[in-house]
Amino acid sequence: AALTMRSITAFQLPTSLHPRYSISAPTTAPHSIPASPFIRPSFAPPARFSSWKSSRLDPKPSSHGTPTRAFSAVHKAKMSSSTMKAVQYIENSDDLSAAKFVEVLAPSAQPGCALIKVAAAAVNPVDWKVMAGYLKGAGWAMPLPFIMGYDISGVITEVGEGVTAFNVGDEVFCVNWGQGKHDDEGNPVGGAFAELVSVPASKLSKKPKELSHEVAAACALVGTTAYDCLFKCAELEKGQRVLVLGGASAVGSIAIQLAKNAGAWVAATHSDRNLEYVKAFNAVDELINYKQKAWEDELKDIDAVIDCVGEKGGFARAKKVLKPEGAFVTISSADVGFDPKGHPPLKYAAFYCLANSPEVQDGLASMIVAGRLKVIVESTYPFTEEGVQAILIKQKSGAACGKQVLKLN
After folding, report:
1. Side by side, which strands form the sheet with 302-307?
2. What are the tens digits of pLDDT across the range 103-145?
3. Coil, strand, or helix at residue 7?
4. Which of 250, 266, 310, 347 has the most other CB atoms within 10 Å of its CB?
């Protein structure tokens, strides 16, 4: 999601945020995504929306479990007397062993929130990057201890005061994320890698029964990012030409499908290892092996470049293929800066970080169910100490082709 200028004060970010092809996504589809030129809703928006864009209550902070041995003042969530298992770290570190499988106090539903019994949780590159402390300089809140994970699918076990759109027993999913960063006005979010999590009802989408918890958890963060990059930032329209750098990445594999569904001409980069994976989506008009060819020498008159991998000199190279008023949107490199209008005449050129949107989540789910979008879950892992370390290692390796998902309840 796009970082606001307020959130990037003293921003210090590695040149490449995401390892090449760090993950891939493919299988999803519920309710049409709003404001998109290509999705046509097959049924009306959920009753909780007063309009297609809907008006929602301001998000309330979610709760994290607090270690049974010490209570952190940062976590002001209402706690129950019972405990739960969770993946938590107490200090920032790029050592994955800092993520501990621990017993913590279980949360209860806060006002405006729903308590979810987590069935599945997906891992993303941002999980270990936040743990390493890479985003603290961007103005992201980093309360400690912190329970990892943002992508959630599960069942509501309790609703807080003021929640009327959801009931106990509803199956829901979401990315528990803020607007342009992972926290809500300094309050912690995340918390997906736990047996229970309290999430603002304003962030939730109802999970279609045809959608598995694993795929629902896998689609929210990467799908919302792909949608935002294409239609909110680049303002992609039917007939335009788009280049996706990293077609096998989680965001990239969804972006090529959304762009093709929108009627765009699509090019994507790949390697020898993941060529067949990208081809399987049947969404790319021109495939370019970045290890064999310089993509900037192969293309011209491109309306939008979506950078999912942070290639060296990516922005300078993209300007060679972009139309004068084209768009360059990156989720992986800080080289281009953070001001979307900072490189005229390009209409957009900046780093972007997603914003939670239940409407987009609904649209992704509808498309998956309808068979118009694939979100591939490559592997699932047990919710154990060994399983947690294995999924984090696989994610950080950058060698995945598809999403990695923890299975809980």
Report:
1. 286-289, 265-270, 241-245, 302-307, 322-330, 348-351
2. 999 999 999 999 999 999 999 999 999 999 988 777 788 889 9
3. helix
4. 250
How do residues 271-290 score in pLDDT, each as one tens digit? 999 999 999 999 999 999 99
Within 10 Å of residue 337's Cβ, how many Cβ atoms? 15
Contact 375, 367 (CB under 8 A): no
280: amino acid identity, one letter = A
Write the pLDDT tens digit of every residue in 386-402.
999 999 999 999 888 89
Backbone φ and ψ of 114, nearest 5°: -125, 140
Angle at 43 between CA 41 and CA 46, to 5 degrees: 105
Sequence-ordered alpha helix ranges (H) in 65-193? 125-132
Q: Alpha helices of 237-333 — where are they, by DSSP H?
A: 250-261, 275-279, 295-298, 314-321
Three-class secondary structure of residue 276 per DSSP: helix
Closest CA to 231 of 360, 342, 333, 317: 360
Q: How far is CA 178 from CA 170, 188, 353, 406, in A?
A: 23, 9, 10, 22
How far apart are the C-alpha atoms of 54 and 128, rounded to whole Å? 33
Of 89 and 10, the structure prediction assigns the larger pLDDT to 89
Closest CA to 273 of 312, 247, 244: 247
- Secondary structure (3-state) at 232: helix
C-alpha of 384 from chain center: 23
Q: How far is CA 32 from CA 24, 160, 318, in A?
A: 22, 28, 31
Q: Are 91 and 67 in contact (CB under 8 A)?
A: no
* pTM exceeds 0.85 for this model: no
> In whole angstroms, what is the distance from residue 14 CA to residue 147 CA?
23
Helices 213-227/358-369 angle, 10° precision:
120
DSSP secondary structure letters along 4-38: PSGGGTT----SB-S-TT-----EEB-SPPTT-SS
CA distance 288 to 299: 10
